[in-house]
Amino acid sequence: MPATTTLLQATQSEAVTAIENDVLLSSSLWANVALAGLAILLFVYMGRNVEAPRAKLIWGATLLIPLVSISSYLGLLSGLTVGFIEMPPGHALAGEEVMSQWGRYLTWALSTPMILLALGLLADVDIGDLFVVIAADIGMCVTGLAAALITSSYGLRWAFYLVSCAFFLVVLYAILVEWPQSATAAGTDEIFGTLRALTVVLWLGYPIIWAVGIEGLALVQSVGLTSWGYSALDIGAKYLFAFLLLRWVAANQDVVGQPTLGTHSEETAPADD
Amino acid sequence: MPATTTLLQATQSEAVTAIENDVLLSSSLWANVALAGLAILLFVYMGRNVEAPRAKLIWGATLLIPLVSISSYLGLLSGLTVGFIEMPPGHALAGEEVMSQWGRYLTWALSTPMILLALGLLADVDIGDLFVVIAADIGMCVTGLAAALITSSYGLRWAFYLVSCAFFLVVLYAILVEWPQSATAAGTDEIFGTLRALTVVLWLGYPIIWAVGIEGLALVQSVGLTSWGYSALDIGAKYLFAFLLLRWVAANQDVVGQPTLGTHSEETAPADD
Amino acid sequence: MPATTTLLQATQSEAVTAIENDVLLSSSLWANVALAGLAILLFVYMGRNVEAPRAKLIWGATLLIPLVSISSYLGLLSGLTVGFIEMPPGHALAGEEVMSQWGRYLTWALSTPMILLALGLLADVDIGDLFVVIAADIGMCVTGLAAALITSSYGLRWAFYLVSCAFFLVVLYAILVEWPQSATAAGTDEIFGTLRALTVVLWLGYPIIWAVGIEGLALVQSVGLTSWGYSALDIGAKYLFAFLLLRWVAANQDVVGQPTLGTHSEETAPADD
Predict the structure, then answer these.
(1) Which residue from C minimizes the CA distance to A138?
(2) String of b and e for C206-241 (b: at least 16 CB within 10 Å)?
(3) For the purposes of burial, counting CB atoms within 10 Å of the CB of C263, is it exposed (0-12), middle (13-18) or buried (19 or more)?
(4) Given this model, what pLDDT does residue B268 score?
(5) Would the CB atoms of A114 and B129 count as touching at under 8 Å?
(6) Are A89 and B175 in contact (CB under 8 A)?
(7) Does position A266 have pLDDT exceeding 50, yes or no?
(8) Contact by Cβ (8 Å): C262, B260
(9) Which of C208, A236, C159 is nearest to B77 (CA)?
(10) C136: nearest CA in chain B?
(11) Per-residue pLDDT at A260 exceeds 60
């Protein structure tokens, strides 16, 4: 049997077996598949009367959030994006095998930009600004993936954790300091403030779970509990976030009426040449 | 010998052997390498008199389409982006090994955004809109990759197929409903209509081939025929598409004269503050 | 032990051992970790008084460059993004195993777009233009990755090298011919000229090192020397580039005052409808 077949299949079947034998773990995944599916149907329904071009645009970006999320959880359930890591010396479980849901980091690299895009469109921020923040966000996810996959050194796992946090600080700075000004200028500061608070608080939870969970200090040694931690955060940061945003957009199409990104900032800070 | 060497090499040499022994299969790949190469030379020649900044921009985006395509087919021919999958229970070929050209999905994630970018620039759509549609398009390709690689469950292969189709619907909605209005405002509606029809019809062919081909229902069980299906669609959706677009741009530089994305929509729907 | 565990761990530990036993090689990696770390601290300090929105934006894009770079070198040092390739017949080291630092290509796909973004923001180029150039740049890095990983054919390694160079030509054309005009209009032509020269000269070094180094013609057969070649180029093209840019931005915030991308080109080439 060819080498790739053997590998791809062994990995997937091992992972599927491990997931099926752990009720806590499998419920943390299926719960999100179900909720993401419901969210997609609900959001399509909520968007039926959205007419203004810019409101439609925000609606489209928001709809992608549960679509990426359902893909992520189906990938974990199929075993395609799950692996087993032998922890390096220094780790609390050194030498033991730990399930790594590395697919989460990969799909966050696609879903979190959608969340930032929706927030940025709402606040009507400059397109270049959005580029930089999304690049930092992708850097955060990719270095998180590296932290999860390193088996050669405990210290390097934490080095990547720190670099990932540094990328996160760039994102936090934009959301907390820069974008609120744009949102005020765009007249969307109230809903932006709510969603920003939700995002900042919940996003802070991810590095905390990593640190105390099985991939970090392993104060919590249950794969199922760690997985539920991420799953619960995803429910708030993705479906609740998207629901609040869409409900507001559907009711305030006139406020988000104009279609071009960055128009407001252009007006408030005219070119000085 | 180190583990990675063994794996990387075994996979590539198995795939190369399988391709070389199947004339139908190898011709489906070499035909596209040849056509993509000719397209690159032709397009460079066609662009020699393009002067207007915006026309040059569309020309640049279009030139990338055959460049990505030639990379894709060289990757398949080298065996680097080809693998062997043992189909799960429930599939018509359950337990048998099937060649998976998974590299196609990966490179579509880079080439199809270029096609959408060229269409979007032509229709002069809002940049935020383009962002969302390209994100949905990448989601479509990545979930297609997942559908192709899952060996643990037949049902999950189709679950990913459905999610991929949902992303496709977002793209279709934009191309069919939203962008034509922008194209009319930009005065490019005739060529946009032609290219949109070509794109929609051919892109619908990809999920159909997946469904009836060897990765789906396996009504067609020949790897070579399935591969030719994708290759023929690529010829129309990539080189013919790009040729028609470039010929029009070269002859209508004055129509696509202004350099900024989204200017028209700004004019037709002014900010109401 | 599960198959993935075995593979992931064997690869990482082999690579780490090989790196630790080669002072030239390991110094080429640690030097960049140290310099990238210092650059991050220095750039945060240099940005403390940047207030103008657009200047802050360029500063943010520039800060990401050393952040991506430190991630790249930590990935190489951990062995996560390093592999061993058996060179195909025709190569000077045919049949021998050569260490491939494939992670370099992967992280260049994230770091070089940041450099182009910073250059593009400085020259105030059209956002669509930036899209196309960044897409070509990512194509360049991904085909470079393919060139590095192919073990089945010496000819295909060089075919990918040529395709990668074709993508590079698209990037070079934009930087050398198109963007200088925008930079002149934006009043940033002096610093743009300096950084453009630095970028073009150093970026030309990468394909040269590939060609003469161990992955290409193998005129230089030392992995450590080849690695130092890339590392030295990175020092100039990343940290020196970013330092010069930030020093200029901090001192010329008024010149880069206006926040919207592409405004100047719009003014110099008004829509003719």
Answers:
(1) C110
(2) bbebbeebbbbebeeeebbebbbbbbbbbbebbbbb
(3) buried
(4) 39
(5) no
(6) no
(7) no
(8) yes
(9) C159
(10) B64
(11) no
Helix (H) / strand (E) element for C263: namely helix C263-268
Long-range contacts of C218-224 (CB under 8 A, 24+ apart): C218/C91, C218/C92, C218/C93, C221/C92, C221/C93, C222/C24, C223/C22, C223/C25, C223/C98, C223/C99, C224/C22, C224/C23, C224/C24, C224/C25, C224/C28
CA B232 to chain centroid, in Å, comes to 12
Distance to chain B for A193, nearest Cα, Å? 21
The mean pLDDT of chain B is 88
- Contact C163/B at CB under 8 A: yes
Please tell me the number of Cα atoms within 13 Å of A25 on its side-chain side.
Answer: 19
Q: Is B56 on the interface with C (CB under 8 A)?
A: yes
A81 to chain C: closest CA residue? C4
Q: What is the pLDDT of residues C160-207, one digit of tens each?
A: 999 999 999 999 999 999 899 999 998 899 999 999 999 999 999 999
DSSP A99: E
Return the number of other C-beta atoms located less than 10 Å from residue B42's C-beta: 15
Res. C266: pLDDT tops 70: no
pLDDT of the residue at A256? 77
Q: For chain B, how many helices (H) and strands (E)?
A: 11, 2
Q: Which residues have a Cβ under 8 Å from the Cβ of C204 and sit 6 or more positions away?
A: none
B53-77 vs B103-123: helix axis angle to the nearest 10? 170
Whether the CB of B127 is below 8 Å from some CB of chain C: the reply is: yes
User: What letters, b where the CB count within 10 A reaches 16 and e where it falls short, cover A51-60?
Assistant: ebbbbbbbbb
| CB contact (8 A) between residue C70 and residue A152 | no
Element (H, E) at A100: strand A97-100
Q: Is C184 on the interface with B (CB under 8 A)?
A: no
**CA C41: distance to chain centroid?**
20
Enumerate residues 6+ apart whose C-beta is below 8 A from A135: C61, C64, C110, C113, C114, C117
Nearest CA in chain C to A170: C60
| Interface test with chain C among B7, B8, B58, B72, by most C beta carbons within 10 Å | B8
State whether residue B124 sits within 8 Å of chain A by CB.
no
DSSP string, B61-113: HHHHHHHHHHHHHHHHHTTTT-EEEEPPBTBTTTTSEEEE-THHHHHHHHHHH
Distance of alpha carbon A193 from alpha carbon A122, whole angstroms: 11
